[in-house]
Amino acid sequence: MAKRYIAFFLAAVMLIACLTGCTSAENNSEAPTEITETSAPKVTDNTTFKLSYTQGDSLDPFKAKTQNNQILSSLVFESLFDLDENYEPVPNIATGYEFTNSKALKVNINPQLKFSDGSALDTDDVVYSFEAAKDSPAYKNSLQYIDYASASGNSVTFYLDRENPYAVNLLTFPIASTKDDENGYPIGSGRYIYEQSSSGKTVLTANATDSFDPYITTINLVNIAAADSIDNAVNIGNISYAFRDLSSSVSKRMSCAKKLVNMNNLVYIGVNSMAGITANAQIRKAISLASDRKTFADSAYSGYATMASSPFNPAGKIAQNIKIFSDTADIATAKQAITQSGVKAKDLKLTILVNKNNNRIAVATLLKSQLEAVGFTVKLEIEEAKEYTQRIKNVEFDIFIGEVKLSDDMSLYPFFDKKGGVRYGIDDKNIKCDNLYSDYLSGDADLGNFILAFNEEMPFIPLVYKKGMICYSKAMNGDMQGYYGNFFSNIDTWNFIS
Q1: 3-state SS assignment for residue 108
Q2: Please, are residues 163 and 102 in contact by the beta-carbon 8 Å criterion?
Q3: CA 442, 445, 451, 455 torsion-angle sign
Q4: What DSSP state is assigned to residue 279?
């Protein structure tokens, strides 16, 4: 009997255990399972990306003389405004601007800004940077018509020598701290910082923030000063990136990945409007009409140029609705202008002065053929740079092939200011469009009035605006969005991940 009770008891215990186990299993099947996800660490690179720099030149943006080091500064320093690819101003350090009168441009600054060392970036730093930039090799020409700057509260006012509604386009100079760091490097508020590596070399390291978290955390600098050496280095991968301004026939020898970049470099025909047959406005018009700008862009510059449709850069907003020059030669109308000039056929003799620059010699050679096609007898004179420059200053020419880098406000004052840097051969007494240009900027005349006068007087003859070229390693990935003045605009998206 006792054995039956014991057996019964054991059976009951086993039954309860089974029921408990089933219930537990059912509860477990219904309970959510927590899975802890661990994200993979961000992949970065501190060895692959390399840029050229000039070791013998200053890294201070206001002392740097080489294009190498001036380009680097856009990684370390920010400006009040950036310009987009159409030369439109985009606020950077500045939060906005207004003209308080026709010669006073007030710019507002975010009072919370910091330099990379944590010190405050204030309006005094902006004034200091402006004054340093105004005396610098890189910015003095573009800032020459801004007289001075004054800080008040969270704003800086720039006082202009003359009216200029596009003056904000000039406020792209770097903003730097008045102090250097402990290693003597200049301090900015940009995406990268100058630092000394463990081996004593100068490098750029990312100034990592919530808004800037790049793959390229260290940029290694390679001392390459010569232009030809830079071309070769980017071709074979010794450096990862370079900007080339095509000052000579660079494009043909570059085998890297490429991106065209708009520039404000005008190639033009300078004209002696004070003597000879070119003193006749109809002859100057005939020269312009005979010029095949498409051929200059496509052939002389191998496609690295844009045909000038007016005196202004076609990439800018001012030129969008202006077209006074045909892309190709208009031979019939050129001959009509010659007839209207009254100059006899035997007197249609011209010399073209050009310096020893491959691209400009190509332009001059093509122009010679184009002018001969409408009746001119043309002689080509190729001079060394020193002699070429002296002859232009002495106005010892009929016409010459010139090039000028215009400032980002699209100013034509280098031609129309009485002290302009390229005002050679322009007749002060008989040219009126220079005054109309000043009246246009001051709001006293329409742009159309100036354009009509320019087309009639043709004091100089715009041909093409040059393009530059960004060259970069074929191993680099990312949408290359760099452009002139902001070469590294989206560097945070660039990588070498295969």
Answers
A1: strand
A2: yes
A3: negative
A4: G
Q: Are 338 and 286 in contact (CB under 8 A)?
A: yes
By the 8 A CB rule, do 214 and 25 touch? no
Residue 87: left if φ>0, alpha if ψ -120 to 50, beta else—which one?
left
Query: Which residue reads 């740097």 in tokens?
Result: 64
For helices 447-457 and 281-290, the axis angle rounded to 10 degrees is 90
Q: How many Å apart are CA 127 and CA 155, to the nearest integer? A: 10
Decide: 382 and 355 in contact? Cβ < 8 Å. Answer: yes
| Overall average pLDDT of the 415-420 stretch | 90
The confidence score (pLDDT) of residue 3 equals: 37
| pTM as predicted | 0.88
**What integer pLDDT is reported at residue 250 of this predicted model?**
58
Cα separation, 344 vs 243, in Å, equals 49
Question: What gap in Å lies between CA 498 and CA 495, rounded to an integer?
Answer: 9
Please check the confidence at residue 138 and state whether its pLDDT lies above 50: yes
What's the distance, Cα to Cα, between the start and end of the chain in Å?
Answer: 82
pLDDT tens digits for range 391-407: 999 999 999 999 999 99
- Residue (of 333, 332, 328, 349) closest to 278 by Cα position: 349
pLDDT tens per residue, range 29-49 = 444 555 555 555 677 889 999
Residue 222 has a CB neighbour count (10 Å cut-off) of: 16
